[in-house]
Known about the structure:
It is built from three helices and three strands; from the N terminus they run E-H-H-E-H-E. By secondary structure, the chain is of the alpha+beta class. It has a domain at 40-103. Helix 1 (44-54) packs across helix 2 (59-72).
Amino acid sequence: MAKKGSAHATPEGQTATKPAPTQTLPRPLPPYKVILHNDDVNEVGHVVQTIITLTTLNTQDAQERTLEAHHQGQSLLLVTHKERAELYQEQFQSAKLVVTIEPDE
């Protein structure tokens, strides 16, 4: 039985508790592809070294992506959120490499 003057009626011996607020988890940012394009200007060594310097790719992966772009015309370097993809694009352009970004569908 609830005590007189109590705001919430509860069974004897228990205290009223408020429900825990629901937490809304942040939604992940939409993924974007960072694509390296072949060009006839840059040497393979420069491209590989730039990829290693600007990304977390190791030497072997950088070489594979460079050769793929050379033979196929383009290569997927990585997938990240839009803001970071834009930063990568700017950094690669500063190194005179052609990189585009597009949504990863």
